[in-house]
Design brief:
Elements lengths: L1 H17 L7 H8 L3 H7 L3 H26 L3 H16 L4 H10 L1 H13 L1 H13 L9 H15 L2 H6 L4 H12 L5 H11 L1
Length: 198
Amino acid sequence: MKKIKNIILKQGFHSLSGAEVKSFTVESLAEKLAISKKTIYEYFPSKEILIKRIVDYRMKSLIGEFKQILNQETDSISQLSKIREHNIKLVNKISLQKLIYLKLRYPKIWEIIEEYRLDRKNIYNQIFTLAEEQGYLKKGLDPLVCATIYMNIFNSIFQPDFMNDNNLSIRDTIEHFQYMICGFFNDKGADKYIRDKG
C-alpha cells in the first residue's frame, strides 16, 4: 500500500515538474502509471490533496538529499557548493510561471513549501557552524545568526512574484545570491567558495 502511494507521489512530482500545474490531471497521471483513476483517488481523495501530498513528499525528499550531502561532504564550503548545484538542478526542472501559478492557485500548498524552506535553517546552521570550526567564517559571526539571515534573505528573494516583477530568472537569481554568501566568510573561505563554484 505504501509502495503504491510512493510511486504515485514520485511520478506525480515528475508529471507536475514536466507539465503546467493547471494541465496536470489525475487521468494523465493514472495513464502514466498504468493504473486506474480510482486507485489514485483511493489514496488521494482530490486533485488538490494529491498536489499537496506530492509537494510534501518532494520537500521531505529534498531535506533528505541535503542531509545526505552533509553526511558525504566533510568540508563546509563543499557542502554549500553541492547544495547550490542541487538547487540549480532542481530549479532547471521548474519554470517561474509554474511557481507563480502554484502560489496563486494553491496558497495552502505554497505554505508547505515556505515551511520546508524555513526548516532548512537547521541545515545551514550546521554548515555555518562547521565553517566556523574549519576557520572559514569571519571572526565574530554567530553561525545561527548567519543561518537565520541566510534563510530569510533566501526566502524573500526566491518568491515567484519578486523574480517575475524584477524580470529575474531563477538560475540568475541563484547565481547572484551565491556571491552574497561570500560576505559571511573570511578570505580563505570566500576564495575556496569561488574556486568550488567555478
